[in-house]
Amino acid sequence: MIELDRISRGFQVGDQLVQALREVSLAINAGEFVSIMGPSGSGKSTLLNLLGLLDRPNSGIYRLDGADVTGLDDAAAATVRREKIGFVFQFFHLVPRLTAAGNVALPLLLAGMAPSERKAKVARLLADVGLSARAEHLPSQLSGGQLQRIAIARAMSMNPALLLADEPTGNLDRATGREVLALLEDLNRRGTTLILVTHDQEIGARAKRHIAMEDGRVVGDTHPSPAGGGEMP
Predict the structure, then answer these.
(1) Nearest-5° angle of CA 138, CA 142, CA 144?
(2) Which domains does the chain show, CATH number per domain?
(3) pTM
């Protein structure tokens, strides 16, 4: 599904170029559950932003489903994001004035889905995350775990093949974080490719493949194997 070929990304800070990613090459297959881990400043979130077409590399090639998406303009990148990619963030990014149902419905509304079809789909999505009874609650009336469940339902509203999660349990207590992770794992079991950035070793270890980053480079890539896993160079 994902092919990165020598992707680099630098940011100008004053008169200095800070290199966030350094010639990263990576392949991720459809249906995988991958965690990306590393210390602050290692390039994890920059990599996730590039995968989600929220940013562009300075050099290298990014192919998504076999198509080169490296140099897409803003409109074309937005179309790919809407059709193929879902996002879950640490701070939820829900619209405060919209109800839970309204937040989940927003991508469907922007896509032009008919009202009756939209209403039915929102009801199914809320049921999937166990929040049918909270449909008319505003974000301010929901707990952190409920907010993240709403964010996940919204992320899945367009049936994306790829779900990118940036520290999705970072704002939650451990028990609630485990519940949210279980929901993400269930989506992966249904076929969604899941890429998770986290600082939490316990959360990251739940993935079936672990990518370690340091100083903008991939320094470790552990794949599952019938024998219980093994390091790939």
Answers:
(1) 130
(2) 2-222 (3.40.50.300)
(3) 0.87
